[in-house]
Amino acid sequence: MQMRAWQTSGDGELHQVTLPRPEPDAGEILVRVTACGVCRTDLHVRDGDLPPHRSPVVPGHEVVGVVEAVGDGVVSFAPGDRAGIAWLRSTCGACRWCRRGAENLCADSRYTGYDADGGYAEYAVAPAAYAYHVPDLPDEQVAPLLCAGIIGYRALRRAAVPPGGRLGIYGFGASAHITAQIAIAQGAEVHVLTRDAAARELALELGAVSAGAADAAPPVPLDSAILFAPAGELVPVALSALDRNGTLAVAGIHLSDIPPLRYQEHLFREKTLTSVTSNTRADGEELLRLAVRLGVRATVTPYPFDRADAALRDLAADRVHGAAVLTMA
Length: 329
Description:
The chain is α/β, with parallel strands linked by helices and 329 residues long.
């Protein structure tokens, strides 16, 4: 049986191809894809910003669909179940990082749409142990939660926002607009800084206290900040905006070069600069539960499957409002 899919090719473009439909091996599930989020990481894979692990590869790691078949030994899913496939695809389970609950740092971790074909296709396979039972929300709403939501949630935790604290969010795309809703629901005072005027309007609609340009100073000193924009030049800007004992978490998988930092201005008074690397399965499970409990809703720009290449081009040009999601007819 054949299926339609999109592949990277090393030329900075996506190409639609016909591939054999995959079949699940032992421990895997086969999912008929109904929606797939379009993530900035897919851009980095397409453009070679990340060292290629598999080429060509079918990108996409915010996959929602229906289980069509299960491999030997799978008891957690059955045909007909809804399932989500996210970025983290597998880990070794035996290294010191996996044993201490930090599987996101496993040196042998593998990733959907990077090490193995992902969700820009009519079907996808994934290890059942790393797939998610998705909440009772529309597919287009669930898809962005599976990476944008999960990574944003981990970044929020890494940013160490104190109770009722002031959180600055730099960049306001798919991940940031989900994270902002969680932070606001948990009592944070959110200030958004982004170059996109439409994104600033969305931030205010979602409850941000202020929304200004990316390189502007927030109206108050920040307790914590998250940098979602892949712009290293904003690191010193965000550090300067932190109050003493503040934390800046850099959420992206790829970042342009960071300019030199001045110790007294950017790091003194016990400021912390930290990064975010992938996620654990526990992060995903917690985020999905929280999204339902807190009423988080993604602002979605849908694209038909046949326009996956256009979705990525629009994302690269900052023409996407909220989260882009591929939908299957």
